Inverse folding.
């Protein structure tokens, strides 16, 4: 169709053939090629079939050469007796060496990206011309499509498992090469990271507690720990505190300077030194804060898409959020339904941004009526579908909150109530209330 309309479709026959030819004459380059291109990046169906065949053979550790590839093509039903053997020979003849295979692969990827950009723009034009939805909705759709391309992901539609296998294989290779003990972004708390395997891409993580238990503090701890350890961008949306209050908390936690002293300005010389060091550490991180209390999930999503190398999002807190910018949304729906819609949108945002999204939440007073006041999933305020949408739900419990006479009133239980990546259970942290921060505890975690 594009050719009939006089438009040139971006693709390079030479680059596609050179990538395939390199794989056939030098199987040693296969690991690099498999991480550099995907089946969908090839424009010609014939080239896609051959690459998919080679990828399948590579995944199952089968030897790759012209004879075995042709045989595997017969098994997969993509072999054409009148053209396949001749085309395989042609691929090898037009490729003098595999030394530049990554340059060929880069050309293939670039041309595929240009085709995807054209497709995204055409779909946006069709949507806008059809008058489907408001202008803001069309703009949001266009932004999502372009962001998905920038993140090298495909939005919508059915995707063959063979293509997903390539992505999973690439991720496994990267994880094995990294040598890291956990696959996700670390929270900074040793036992918690072991239990939840870190914070993984697309995770919607809920941290719930009664007021005063330290949910904001632990959220800020995790953000700062993650930003320092990974160097990635972290976005913090605070619907309760101002940005100055947030940064003051960061300084108190990082510098171990009493929060009361920071608020009063009554600091010793040593505390000034620690404040200076904390400010230097914070200044070297890529943490962004927004304290607009009227932000909606869609607006947060749009702002996060514009951040480079985003690694983590934290929102404080769920019950203060609005489902849409219009005030009538509150009147027409129950609060439980509104919060349920918000939690669903937050899970969608985590998937679209492909980063973990941490959301803080208040617990209802139900646990106050029980002898054992440890949080349960049913204690989530206006829970609706929150527990279904969240990948990980953690509750904070500190016995010293209710009884200061116990032996260790600062011992805190971080209870994993739901964990899609593994087991539930509790781990222990030490609450340093003077500095509004948590640290790892020497108490062993409960199996």
């Amino acid at each position: 169709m594009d050719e009939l309309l006089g438009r040139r479709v971006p693709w390079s026959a030479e680059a596609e053939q050179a990538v395939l030819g390199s794989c056939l004459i030098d199987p040693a380059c296969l690991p690099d090629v498999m991480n550099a291109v995907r089946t969908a990046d090839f424009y010609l169906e014939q080239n896609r079939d051959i690459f998919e065949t080679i990828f399948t053979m590579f995944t199952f550790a089968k030897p790759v050469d012209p004879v075995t590839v042709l045989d595997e093509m017969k098994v997969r039903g993509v072999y054409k007796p009148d053209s396949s053997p001749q085309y395989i020979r042609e691929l090898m003849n037009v490729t003098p060496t595999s030394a530049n295979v990554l340059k060929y692969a880069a050309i293939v990827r670039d041309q595929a990206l240009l085709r995807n950009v054209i497709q995204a723009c055409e779909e946006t034009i069709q949507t806008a011309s059809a008058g489907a939805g408001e202008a803001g909705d069309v703009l949001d759709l266009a932004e999502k499509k372009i962001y998905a391309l920038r993140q090298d992901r495909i939005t919508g539609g059915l995707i063959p498992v063979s293509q997903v296998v390539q992505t999973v294989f690439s991720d496994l290779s990267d994880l094995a090469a990294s040598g890291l003990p956990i696959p996700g972004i670390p929270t900074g708390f040793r036992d918690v990271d072991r239990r939840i395997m870190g914070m993984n891409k697309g995770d919607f993580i809920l941290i719930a507690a009664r007021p005063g238990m330290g949910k904001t503090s632990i959220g800020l701890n995790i953000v700062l720990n993650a930003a320092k350890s990974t160097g990635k961008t972290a976005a913090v949306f605070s619907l309760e505190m101002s940005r100055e209050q947030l940064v003051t908390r960061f300084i108190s936690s990082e510098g171990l300077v009493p929060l009361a002293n920071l608020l009063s300005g009554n600091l010793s010389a040593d505390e000034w030194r620690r404040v200076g060091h904390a400010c230097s550490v914070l200044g070297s991180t890529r943490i962004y804060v927004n304290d607009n209390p009227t932000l909606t999930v869609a607006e947060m999503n749009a702002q996060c898409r514009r951040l480079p190398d985003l690694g983590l999002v934290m929102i404080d807190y769920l019950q203060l959020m609005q489902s849409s910018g219009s005030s009538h949304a509150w009147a027409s729906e129950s609060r439980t339904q509104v919060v349920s819609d918000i939690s669903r949108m937050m899970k969608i945002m985590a998937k679209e941004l492909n980063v973990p999204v941490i959301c803080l939440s208040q617990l209802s007073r139900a646990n106050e009526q029980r002898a054992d006041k440890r949080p349960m999933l049913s204690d989530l305020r206006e829970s609706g579908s929150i527990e279904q949408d969240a990948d990980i739900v953690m509750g904070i419990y500190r016995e010293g909150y209710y009884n200061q006479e116990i032996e260790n009133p600062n011992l805190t239980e971080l209870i994993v109530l739901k964990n899609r990546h593994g087991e539930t259970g509790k781990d222990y942290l030490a609450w340093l209330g003077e500095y509004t921060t948590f640290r790892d505890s020497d108490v062993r975690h409960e199996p």
User: Anything to note?
Assistant: Confidence is low (pLDDT under 50) at residues 325-332. The first helix runs from residue 13 to 25.
